[in-house]
């Protein structure tokens, strides 16, 4: 089997830069370097498609990637090009935002170590990892699951409010255009 091929992903980078400014300011505040790449095939894990990854690159790998700039750690977001091409803009945005959530930067608290980097990069874990069969059998038994459901309910409510507002605006526009037609 041929090995996977990687290529630059300027589309992902452009979308990520917008999302970082809006939702991931800590990455800007700590001047975190991120790279974005496409992979030409969709990998699978345990029979499921892997839609992407965010990895922290450090040590020797960071040195090899940045020989001219040193060996500062950074993150790389990788998304399979076939997945990217099949998604709508809204889904692409959610996918990139999802992987940016893994990239976390914070001030390094090691005060006793003079050589410690001032910034600590870590890979965050998702808020919830659960099996659908457990939810079917036991319901939302964890606080994290309840919080996720509440977030979904609030998002759905916001969408409904937005839709109702658009419908109201549309009917007002419709009324206005009918009024102008009568003149």
Q: Regions with pLDDT < 50 over 5+ consecutive residues?
A: 167-183
As a percent range, the share of helical residues equals: 40-55%
Give a short account of the largest sheet.
4 strands, mixed
CATH architecture of the largest domain: 2-Layer Sandwich
The portion of residues forming beta strands comes to: 15-25%
Mean pLDDT: 84
Q: Which strands sit side by side, in order, in the main sheet?
A: 1-2-6-5
Number of β-strand runs = 8
Instruction: Specify the overall morphology.
Output: globular
Structure description:
The chain is 51% helix and 19% strand. With 183 residues, the chain is an alpha+beta fold. The protein has 2 domains: 1-125, Zincin-like (2-Layer Sandwich), CATH 3.30.2010; 127-183, no CATH class. Helix 1 packs across helix 5 (89-102).
Which labels suit this protein?
alpha+beta, Zincin-like, 2 domains, four-stranded mixed beta sheet, two-stranded antiparallel ribbon, 7 helices, globular, disordered C terminus
Give a nutshell description of this structure:
By secondary structure, the chain is an alpha+beta fold.
Describe the secondary-structure layout.
Blueprint: E1 6-8, H1 10-23, H2 25-29, E2 34-39, E3 44-45, E4 48-49, E5 53-57, H3 59-65, E6 74-80, H4 81-86, H5 89-102, E7 103-107, E8 119-123, H6 132-138, H7 143-182
Parallel strand pairs: 2-6
Antiparallel strand pairs: 1-2, 3-4, 5-6, 7-8
């Amino acid at each position: 089997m041929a090995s996977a091929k990687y290529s630059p992903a300027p589309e992902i980078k452009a979308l990520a830069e917008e999302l970082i400014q809006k939702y991931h300011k800590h990455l800007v505040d700590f001047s975190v370097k991120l790279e974005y790449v496409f992979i030409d095939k969709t990998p699978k894990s345990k029979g499921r498609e892997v839609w992407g990854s965010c990895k922290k690159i450090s040590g020797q790998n960071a040195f090899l990637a940045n020989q001219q700039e040193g060996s500062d750690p950074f993150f790389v977001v990788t998304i399979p090009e076939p997945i990217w091409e099949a998604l709508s803009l809204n889904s692409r945005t959610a996918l990139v935002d999802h992987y940016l959530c893994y990239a976390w930067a914070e001030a390094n608290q090691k005060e006793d170590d003079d050589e410690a980097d001032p910034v600590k990069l870590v890979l965050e874990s998702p808020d919830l990892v659960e099996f659908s069969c457990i939810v079917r059998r036991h319901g939302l038994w964890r606080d994290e699951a309840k919080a996720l459901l509440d977030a979904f309910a609030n998002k759905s409510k916001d969408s409904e409010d937005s839709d109702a507002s658009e419908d109201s605006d549309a009917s007002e526009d419709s009324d206005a255009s009918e009024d102008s037609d009568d003149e």
